[in-house]
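During the second year of the project, the team shifted from modelling isolated chains to modelling whole assemblies. The rationale, set out in the original proposal, was that interfaces cannot be judged from single-chain predictions alone. As a representative example for this report, we include one of the complexes processed in the last quarter. Its constituent sequences, exactly as entered into the pipeline, are reproduced here:
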Amino acid sequence: EYSKYKRYFTPLPTLPPIPADNPLTPEKVKLGKMLYYDPRLSRSKIISCNTCHNIALGGDDNVKTSIGHGWKTGGRNAPTTLNSGFLKVQFWDGRAPTLEEQTKGPIQAHVEMNATPELVVRRLKAIPEYVELFKKAFPNDPDPVNFENVAKAIAAFERTLNTPNSPFQRYLLGEENALTKEQKEGMKLFVEKGCIACHNGPVLSDGRFHKFKSNNDTGRFRVTKNPKDKYLFRTPQLLNVALTAPYFHDGSAKTLEEAIRHMAEQELGQKLSMEEVRKIKAFLESLTGEIPLEARTVPILPPERQ
Amino acid sequence: EYSKYKRYFTPLPTLPPIPADNPLTPEKVKLGKMLYYDPRLSRSKIISCNTCHNIALGGDDNVKTSIGHGWKTGGRNAPTTLNSGFLKVQFWDGRAPTLEEQTKGPIQAHVEMNATPELVVRRLKAIPEYVELFKKAFPNDPDPVNFENVAKAIAAFERTLNTPNSPFQRYLLGEENALTKEQKEGMKLFVEKGCIACHNGPVLSDGRFHKFKSNNDTGRFRVTKNPKDKYLFRTPQLLNVALTAPYFHDGSAKTLEEAIRHMAEQELGQKLSMEEVRKIKAFLESLTGEIPLEARTVPILPPERQ
Ligand code: HEC
Ligand code: HEC
Ligand code: HEC
Ligand code: HEC
Ligand SMILES: [Ca+2]
Ligand SMILES: [Ca+2]
Ligand SMILES: [Ca+2]
Ligand SMILES: [Mg+2]
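Output from the structure prediction step:
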């Protein structure tokens, strides 16, 4: 009696869409992984993508709002990089259309890595192994160590940071017992209450903007300056959401229960019973997948030439 | 004609000495690895052992003096954790006799992780998977989630963080061509010039204290308050030294050449030729080993119970 709900959901494909101008190759993914883990992409040399999007923690940093260069914060919660290739737009306010564009943001943001394209390229050029790896990843580029290619390589790696084999994924693919009864009840509620209206597609995000007022952060309006966009935020994905507390763009919800209850009230004008919250939570917990071992293997980063 | 120098050196054993009160078990190593990578051992939740002793970077942080909680620094350079189980005493000033004692330092240091034993234990007890893992690692302990056991588990993991198969190790074990001629020349100079007097044993440290005045840091004197100990520092290991620039307790030498030249002058009262420096450097580069894949595989850390 639950199977009729399956059609509202989309199993996670093996790979997200790959842009024509950044084909996925093993050489690029290898380089991208190294850059993702390399703190020398930051001015201080101590902050990497993995600092805030820690693979050990579910691709995020577990804190309310991220802390970056100089112990400063930008006031927003770090979403997970896992499965981020499936998002239609990047950032809470959707200000980057692609992962390539996205990546250039944190490297330069004063409250994150606080570097410049020139600094990053200069550092990488001083490391012979990196020069070699850029040549291999971008064989047709006469001067491959450049900021565009840094972004392309990291984006390529991120497109492999996907988490298959979650209980829910296995259920969708036919393994009837992969979900508990409680989780199936949660799935049903997720559809019937209307969560599915915004949280849909392979990562449970429509990639669109919806009103969510929490503090002075005006969200999408900051990007478009269009008054109609005030307090609009892009629907976040829900895969691995059990690993990415706290919740919302400002990390204001400490627990998944709190986030679910709040969503029902703010987005659907409903009050859920404790039991309903519990069931939806159990369902969301079934969205935790497996990080491929390859992405979890720390690269050995080359030292600077001396 | 180089083989007569081999007897001055000791190949790296598979494991360092294991203290009787902290036997090495797979369960403990597994737990220790998780704790090593877990930033929730710090007050801010964003700094782990791996932040400053980054496995991707050679077990250190590549910066002059480490940056910790609140973007503060303690003014000392972070040595590598790789092969640290072979050191006779821990820290530049030898203030910890064992890895177990050592570990309690950074977790509590205000400029490092700035936590307290109570905070750490409270956080770990709130995570059911950790409670289970502590039970497995310390099966005879009625209340296994305690600060002593945190230290024991991390120390156990560190004792597996060894780097076999360096070219020099292979050379010592009989693979004649594992070293270049230049590296063999460097080995010879390392013995003949007298570096071996202090840099000896399996990790090329005698574990003793020697005068090295660089700034106001009085080294061993800070620990003993004995005026004879002013400006004494424990000889650091040299395994993987090509990965751990900058050098010395204050990170004052940017390159390996600089460190070698400085050592010869300060410790041996000699001036080396450019060629001699080059050869010794080549020899030291042959000390870079292989980090076991197991230690390089990022653990999946459990979320807090919500
Ligand atoms: C200091 C912390 C910090 C660092 C370092 C950092 N990020 Fe982020 N990241 C964030 C925060 C906070 C956001 C959300 C910002 C926003 O939406 O305005 C974010 C957003 C993202 C997103 C968008 C995900 C989504 O769901 O919209 C991706 C992808 C991402 N970061 C990847 C990276 C990569 C790649 C790097 C390294 C080049 C990096 N980040 C470095 C904190 C950080
Ligand atoms: C009208 C669109 C819409 C509906 C309906 C909706 N959501 Fe959301 N959801 C969002 C948006 C937008 C956010 C991001 C809010 C923010 O932090 O700015 C969000 C955030 C969340 C989060 C936090 C994710 C994170 O990583 O921080 C959870 C969990 C969640 N929704 C679950 C649900 C559940 C369960 C329901 C149904 C009870 C639901 N949502 C209904 C749009 C919606
Ligand atoms: C904020 C940076 C930082 C953090 C976090 C940190 N360390 Fe260190 N570590 C250092 C510095 C700096 C030293 C040298 C301090 C000294 O000798 O006074 C050091 C010394 C050591 C040593 C001694 C090595 C030697 O050659 O004497 C070991 C072992 C070690 N740390 C392990 C750890 C472990 C385990 C953790 C986590 C529980 C940790 N460190 C957390 C910076 C850090
Ligand atoms: C009398 C003892 C002694 C002798 C002889 C000696 N060293 Fe050292 N070495 C030390 C001590 C002590 C330090 C740590 C100094 C400090 O930073 O406080 C050190 C540090 C180093 C370092 C930096 C390691 C690091 O990780 O920062 C290198 C490299 C080094 N020695 C190489 C050599 C070479 C090459 C020689 C011979 C030319 C040599 N040493 C001779 C005691 C000695
Ligand atoms: Ca979050
Ligand atoms: Ca290093
Ligand atoms: Ca160093
Ligand atoms: Mg997390």
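Chain B has two domains: 3-13+164-285, 26-161+292-296. Chain B touches chain A through 37 residues (CB under 8 Å).
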